[in-house]
Amino acid sequence: MKHIIKLALIVLAVIFAGNPAYAGLPLNNLEGVGGVAFNPLAYPAEGDPLYSIGDTEVVSKPRFGTWYTNLGQPKIDWGSFGVATTFFKRLEVSEGYQYISWAKAGADFHKNNIGAKLVLLPENSFNTNFLPEISIGTIYKTTSDKVIHGLGLTSNRGSGEDWYAVATKTITQLPLPVVLSAGVLSSQEVATGVLGFTNERRETAFGNIDVVLPHGFAVGMCMWHGWRIRTLP
């Protein structure tokens, strides 16, 4: 019940914040952060201005998104809901809720993600047309502690933090805009944190190539090099 109440509060926050922004990159990724799939982008999840002082935008209208992922072989249904907004066009704050049903293990997980992203260098700074946007961020995650211990993963903790740095550039000289993004993630997570967190921190390189289609659609590919999604037991 507490997870349903939390999800309802997120929805109400979006409604009372005004007309949210729906389309365009970055999307809310699976953990609520401005990004695509599992990966964050350097761009903050920013809608139209919600509140400004003069010409200075203080807070943007929130973006929200939902995902559904079906992993057929391990029989996993993975649903996500996220909301994010940006302050002063530089600081993104986000909240993501994930519900994962693993039929093979007979287990259901509830995972929560609280994120913050800071833009260090806006795209095309210093009057250039080639510099990427550069951001750093963190995500504090919690998962169902009793469930992971019930699966015998007693050495895993129920919470942990991710830290990441990412650079993103949109190439506009092609027939359709292409978004290129690459970064590095430092994490203690197992299966993105669904199966908990260890005391060993490791790094994963990640990247995206996304083509922005008309009417707010995008198609692309996400890549990882490292240990981010381990083989499920």
How far is the first residue's CA from the last residue's CA? 29 Å
Order of helices and strands: HEEEEEEEEEEHEEEE
Q: What is the helix tally?
A: 2
What is the CA-based Rg, rounded?
18 Å
Strand content: over 45%
Can you characterise this structure?
The chain has 233 residues and is mainly beta. It has one domain (2-225). It has 2 helices and 14 strands. The chain has helices at residues 2-16, 145-150; strands at residues 27-28, 34-36, 39-40, 49-53, 56-60, 63-71, 76-87, 91-102, 107-121, 133-142, 159-171, 178-189, 197-212, 218-225. The longest helix has 15 residues, at 2-16. Mean pLDDT is 85; it is low at 1-23.
Short summary:
With 233 residues, the protein is mainly beta. The protein is built from 2 helices and 14 strands.
